[in-house]
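Hi F.,

I've been meaning to write this up properly since the lab meeting, where we talked about keeping a consistent format for the predictions we share between groups. The idea is simple: the sequence comes first, exactly as it goes in, then the structure tokens exactly as they come out, then a line or two of notes. No screenshots and no reformatting. I'm using this chain as the first example so we have something concrete to point to.
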Amino acid sequence: MSVVSELLQYNRQFVENKGYEEYLTDKYPDKQIAILTCMDTRLVELLPKALNLRNGDAKIIKNAGAILTQPFGSAMRSILIAIYEMGVKEVFVIGHHGCGMTGLNADGIIEKIKAQGIPDIVLETLNKSGIRMERFLKGFQTVEEGIMQSVEIIRNHPLLPKTIPVHAFVMHPDTGEMELLSEGYEYLKQRDG
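Output, unedited:
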């Protein structure tokens, strides 16, 4: 049985058995928070459980390493929409120890791309169009560095309301323990003080 068939078979049973009922909520986050976090599989259930979040409490935006590479990408757009359209009042950026983006080598990924049959001309065309693969596929040296880079992009975004606190955390992917890197309330106090 293919993965698609297996998932669809389970889904039919889930709907027939009304398994969705315990997850019913609306689109507005009850705790009025948005979380930018990593797509790591270890965080799928652990992160919400470790923070006592249930379905409907938060907008959770995931990408590799919780990295914002530029201020006008899709993850930042999601944060702004969550604030302006969904009532979000605080933003959390949560990375984790042991992240695959730590020390990520763009050249190594480019070689894997080529090994999958993507011709050099495609990469050359992207480069000529202004897409720098070294930057696009860049990781970070430490998870703390990567998280704080994302936090700084959010905090300094020209469209972010100046009243929104942006917090930075690193999570242990085995235990769920959270380490505070930067508290948004304190940052706003110092900035405005």
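Notes:
Residues 105-133 form one domain.
The beta strands are 33-38, 58-63, 90-96, 166-171, 178-182.

If this format works for you, I'll send the rest the same way.

G.
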